[in-house]
TrEMBL record:
Pfam family, one: Trypsin
EC nos: 3.4.21.84
Protein known as: limulus clotting factor C
Gene Ontology terms describing biological process: hemolymph coagulation; proteolysis
PANTHER family attached to this UniProt entry: TRANSMEMBRANE PROTEASE SERINE, TRANSMEMBRANE PROTEASE SERINE 7
Domain of life of the native organism: Eukaryota
InterPro entries: Peptidase_S1_PA, Peptidase_S1_PA_chymotrypsin, Peptidase_S1A, Trypsin_dom, TRYPSIN_HIS, TRYPSIN_SER
Keywords of the record: Disulfide bond, Hemolymph clotting, Hydrolase, Protease, Serine protease, Signal, Sushi
GO molecular function: serine-type endopeptidase activity
UniProt xrefs under Gene3D superfamilies: Trypsin-like serine proteases
Catalysed transformations (reactions): Selective cleavage of 103-Arg-|-Ser-104 and 124-Ile-|-Ile-125 bonds in Limulus clotting factor B to form activated factor B. Cleavage of -Pro-Arg-|-Xaa- bonds in synthetic substrates
Length: 324
């Protein structure tokens, strides 16, 4: 990945014990590259929130903000309506999502992809998309985007390189909300395939499955949903779907693409993550599926590990969070 340098030469190993003191770190060492340890600013990635409250064959996420890096995207003209896509918090000011969420559908007959939308609103810290309190009204925010950056090699016809970064107009105060809002961890590099691991997909997308070509009436849940799926071998998936090395596929928990569990319409852009060392690492971005939870049609995700260098470059001077 790209190398960043601390803004202040005053940030030395001796400062390590001050890493949890936000004002000190902000002034002395704004960009640490984890030199001062995993607890910089008191923020840890991929931690489940255990604040008690009360997807296709998925279940309600029973704990509000259990996966607090999950965000929802709203259209600027329909802010009172539900989320049209998902995303994940990767820094205090950047959201990772799918490019097809922020680039309008290509007109029939067009040979070029459309330009990205001008602005979206991002719901931070939400749980029930139709309610405004969720018992944590002081943590629920709707923040407008300042900049939307699709991957420069995104192909709207094949959905290759289907990812985008949204820079928020205002940063999320992760230090203030420590223990409630956590960014997700990202892979350090592209050394793992995650094949055979059980992964979790989350979103507010439709909970009604369908086969491609069928008449479809989506049913969107109020409460954030989660579903467990198994990461497939790409060589097996490519026999059923046209995919590139930049993608990964999921099947049901038994490892078979027999349907029954999947992300669906409205889940796009949301995270697919695995648990490692007690933390959640995002390995995929919900991208494409032929129908939802349909037999012999695996779910397809953008493979996050293929894009770490690009993500790091686009979020500078902020830094992404990885496992210590």
């Amino acid at each position: 990945g790209s190398q960043c340098i601390d803004k202040s030469a005053s940030c030395h190993y001796a400062d390590k014990n001050a890493c949890k003191i936000y004002e000190y770190m902000k002034d002395i060492c704004p960009v640490t590259c984890n030199e001062c340890g995993d607890d910089t600013y008191g923020v840890k990635c991929g931690i489940e929130t255990n604040a008690p409250t009360r997807i296709i064959n998925g279940v309600d996420v029973e704990v509000a903000r259990k996966y607090s890096w999950q965000v929802g995207l709203k259209d600027t003209n329909h802010r009172s309506e539900g989320y049209f896509c998902g995303g994940s918090i990767i820094t205090n000011q950047h959201i990772l999502t799918a490019a097809h969420c922020v680039i309008p559908s290509t007109r029939k007959g067009s040979l070029t992809c459309a330009k990205p939308v001008y602005r979206v609103f991002v719901g931070i810290g939400d749980h029930k998309q139709e309610e405004t309190t969720d018992n944590f009204s002081d943590f629920l925010e709707l923040i407008p985007s300042m900049n939307i950056i699709p991957h420069p090699e995104y192909n709207c016809f094949t959905l290759d390189n289907d990812l985008a970064i949204i820079k928020l107009k205002m940063p999320i105060d992760l230090q203030k909300h420590a223990g409630v809002i956590h960014p997700v961890c990202l892979p350090k590099d592209d050394s793992k395939t995650y094949q055979g691991l059980t992964a979790t997909s989350t979103g507010w997308g439709s909970v009604v499955g369908y086969n491609e070509g069928e008449e479809y009436s989506p049913n969107y849940p109020n409460i954030l949903q989660e579903v467990q799926v198994s990461v497939m071998n790409n060589s097996k998936c490519i026999k059923q779907r046209l995919i590139s090395d930049n993608m990964l596929c999921t099947a049901n928990e038994e490892g078979y693409a027999e349907g029954g569990k999947d992300a669906c319409q409205g889940d796009s852009g949301g995270p697919l993550f695995v648990k490692q060392k007690g933390r959640h690492v995002q390995i995929g971005i919900t991208s494409d599926g032929k129908g939802c939870a349909s037999k012999e049609n695996p779910g397809v995700y953008s493979r996050v590990s293929k894009f770490i260098d690009w993500i790091e470059k686009e979020v500078e001077p902020e830094t992404i969070f990885t496992l210590p």
